[in-house]
Write a structure and sequence with these properties.
- The complex is a heterodimer of chains A (163) and B (78).
- Chain A has 163 residues and is an all-alpha fold.
- Helix content of chain A is 74%, strand content 0%.
- Chain B is built from three helices and no strands.
- By secondary structure, chain B is mainly α.
- The chains are: A mainly alpha (163), B mainly alpha (78).
- Chains A and B meet through helix 1, helix 2, helix 3 and helix 6 of A and helix 2 and helix 3 of B.
Chain lengths: 163, 78
Amino acid sequence: MKRNKLIVLAVVIAYGFCFPGCKQFQTVKNALSYKLGAETTDQVIVNAEKFTAIGADTFAEFLKEERRYSTEVKKALPKVHEFAETMRQPTYNKDGTPKLSVKGNPIPRYVDLLQDLRTATQTFKANRTTENEASLRTIYATVSLLITQTKDNFALVQALQAP
Amino acid sequence: MTALALLAFENLPKILEAIGILKKVPDAIETVKGLIAYVKGVAEHLKQTEPLTPEQEAQLDSYIDSLADEEFSQPEKS
C-alpha cells in the first residue's frame, strides 16, 4: 500500500507539472464546494446536470477504490467501509419489490439518488415552476452533501495508502 | 546447486515480499489511471455552460444506469 501511494503521488505530481491543465485540481476542489444559489433557470439546470455527472464519477471512483482495497479499509477504516456499504444498499419500490437495473441487478442507493436528481432536473426542464425548482434544489442538496461525505471518505482511503 | 538452494531459502521472505509488490503494481496502476480519468472527467463536466442536449442527456442517463451493474456497486457478499 505504501509503495502504491508513492507511485500514485509520483504520477499525480508529474501530471501536475507536465500539463498546463494542472489547475484542474483546484477547479475540482472549487466545484465540490459549490452550492446552488440565485441563478437563472438555465443555470440551475446546467449546475444540476454538472453535479449529476460529477456525483456519478465521484461515487463510482470512491466505491471502486474502496472495493479494490477492501481488506485494508475494513481493517483500518471500518466506518469508511460501512459508509461505502450504505451507498451500495439496494433500493425498493413502494410495493416492497427491489428496484432492478435492465440487466436485473439491484439498484444501489447512490444510483437511485442520481436517478432521482435526473428525474427532478428533467421535470424542471420541461416545466419551470417554483414547485419543481424547489424539488430539484432539495434533491440537489442531498446529492451535494453525499459528494462532500464521499470526498472526505475517499481522502481517508487515499491516506491509508500513504507511507 | 545446494548453495543456491540455501541462498534462496535464506532470502525467501525477501523473495515473497518482492512477489507481493509485483502483484500490487497492477492495482497501483489502475488507481493512478482512475484518478487521472476522474480529474479529467470532472474538468470536462465543468466546461458545460448550456443545458444538455437530448443526446447528451441520454448518454448521462445510460452512464448512471450502467453503474448499477458494476461489481463495485453491489454490497459485499456475507
